[in-house]
Amino acid sequence: MKIDQYTELYGIIGYPVRHSLSPLMHNTAFEAVGINAVYFAFETRDLKAVTEGMKALPIKGMSVTTPHKIRIIDHLDDLHALASQIGSVNTVVNHDGRLIGFNTDASGALRALEGKVRLEDTHSLIVGAGGAARSIAFALKEMGAIVTITNRTASKGKALTKALGCGFVPWEKMDHIEAELIVQTTPLGMAPDINACPIPVSILKPGITVMDIIYNPRCTRLLRLAESRDCQIIDGVSMFVHQGAEQFRIWTNLDPPLRVMEEVVKEALEKQDGSK
Ligand code: NAP
Fold first, then answer.
1. Residues 92 and 116 occupy one common structural domain
2. Structural domain of 81
3. What is the position in ligand 1's atom list of the atom closest to the CA of 69?
4. Claim to verify: residue 43 and residue 90 sit in the same structural domain
5. Which residues are marked as active site?
6. Is 111 in the same domain as 52?
7. Distance in Å, CA 18 to ligand 1 centroid
8. How remote is the CA of residue 199 from the centroid of ligand 1, in Å?
9. Which residues line ligand 1 (CB under 6 A)?
10. Whether 114 and 174 share a structural domain
11. Which residue's CA is the nearest one to ligand 1's atom 2?
């Protein structure tokens, strides 16, 4: 990778963020397409300083991860319509000093489900009510799914339910729901705590689809249990790569090198323990 006076800057903000594979994925994509750009990881809590810094340096684009996806909105100049409807931003573009927020989590999740599951008039259970859950619930509803949300903190789950017009089921009663699609969006099961699983086995009925948006490890405890009970399983890599590919398109106006991005992420995960 050549770095010179024309190299453009991109990055990801989050807290924590060192575990993120976005730098590897985006730097590989820039190199594959021959773009003179570099992508960093910025572990920060100071969104005011970040957005001022983006304008001052300037930084051309930023990914936004937990816990900043909702609070970043107050620091932006404008929002793309979808990000505004969803109320969550995972992508920022610097257009000549104006910072615009986008959401690619919703389309990334839909691409991961595409061709694998029917959504219209299908009962879906979303476990968690954070930024990712918000985007996925919105996307599923747009596709005609009947969505129920459960969350450890009931007040947050209910607030999201009200905002999106979904159903709510208390955390300890999630096994009362009969869902054809379950989407797990909490960090439970993510490395290093790989034995955690937020979902009771009793709702993993044969033939249903279970998507875990955690991608490290690729095959979480939940997905292993679901597979052993004859559920269709979808890991978090596909959503991760598709949301990243859409960010690449927004930043560069070019077609993303999807296969290269996917391969480099899978390779990195395979090198880590328990991710095969
Ligand atoms: P977030 O906004 O911080 O939300 C976290 C959610 O998880 C909340 O609903 C929270 O419940 C719940 N939670 C956290 N710890 C919990 C615990 N110990 N027990 C039960 N529930 C717990 O985070 P996010 O941005 O939505 O991201 C969530 C996860 O998805 C992260 O692991 C992230 O890496 C992953 N992710 C993956 C992709 C992908 O492309 N594959 C994209 C986005 C996010 P409370 O309300 O009770 O706190």
1. no
2. 8-103+238-275
3. 25
4. yes
5. 69
6. no
7. 16
8. 14
9. 66-67, 69, 105, 108, 128-133, 151-153, 156, 185-188, 190, 198, 213-215, 236, 239-240, 243
10. yes
11. 130
Q: Contacts by 226-233 with C-beta closer than 8 Å and gap 24+? A: 229/201, 229/204, 229/205, 230/206, 231/204, 231/205, 231/206, 231/207, 232/116, 232/117, 232/207, 232/208, 233/209
Q: Is the model's pLDDT at 1 over the cut of 90?
A: no
89 and 114 assigned to the same domain = no
Number of the ligand 1 atom closest to the C-alpha atom of 244: 40
Task: Provide the pLDDT for residue 2.
Answer: 84
Which of 185, 211, 218, 233 best tests ligand 1's pocket when mutated (most atoms within 8 Å of CB)?
A: 185
Question: How much is the pLDDT for 274?
Answer: 54
**47 neighbors 72 (Cβ within 8 angstroms):** yes
CATH code of the domain containing 52 = 3.40.50.10860
State whether 142 and 199 are in the same domain: yes
Give yes or no for residue 89 having a pLDDT over 60: yes
What is the rounded average pLDDT of the residues 133-147?
97
Tell whether the model's pLDDT for residue 233 goes beyond 90. Answer: yes
What rounded mean pLDDT belongs to the chain? Answer: 96
Q: What is the pLDDT confidence band of residue 272, given thresholds at 50, 70 and 90?
A: confident
Total number of domains in the chain: 2
Above pLDDT 70, what percent of the chain?
98
The whole-angstrom separation of Cα 132 and Cα 186 is 9
Q: How far is the CA of 38 from the centre of ligand 1 (A)?
A: 28
CB count, 10 Å around CB of 227?
Answer: 14
* CATH number of the structural domain spanning residue 224: 3.40.50.720
